[in-house]
Fold each of these.
Amino acid sequence: LFDMTCGAAVFASMEPGDFCSTVELHVNYFRPLDLGDKVVAKTEVVFRGKKLCTVRGLLFRKGQVDPVAMCSATFNIVAPKK
């Protein structure tokens, strides 16, 4: 889930024709989830360079204030050759 939601944050910073791949994804788990729990992920780009993008994210049980997990991720950005 974090890879997908962090990737969506990266996609928002990319130019048409660019693509990206996950280089690193680190997750800290704080609380367990139960089967059927609804969750909300909030991610943001922390750094965007020419080739690397760093994102952080939090995962919440829907309707709660305290996160159940957090992540940091780095993505490789590839622009098409001109």
Note: The chain has one helix and four strands.
Amino acid sequence: MIDWEKITGFDWDEGNREKCQKHGLSQKEIEYFFQQKEVFVAPDPKHSDEEERYLAIGRSKKRKPMFVVFTLRDVNGERLIRPISARYMHEKEAKRYEEENAKIEK
């Protein structure tokens, strides 16, 4: 379980910034994504060999469905979100997200 109140910011460097931008998402857009209440987060045990990873789905500021893989890092006494990869969902993923989200809202 993530204690969101203890998270104080983001851990960015050239590596993760470039990987996220490669898929058309800016650092600012990813940070906005995590400020929303409509982000669904789940553990990603398949990719958590060295550190605990999470999958997050939600919407961009422009309301486009997004998918973000991230981990949490403790840096200089602060708890930070470190985005690993981020992209807009493919059409098939977005359709499934819309269908599932509609079920939740009812």
Note: The mean pLDDT is 87.
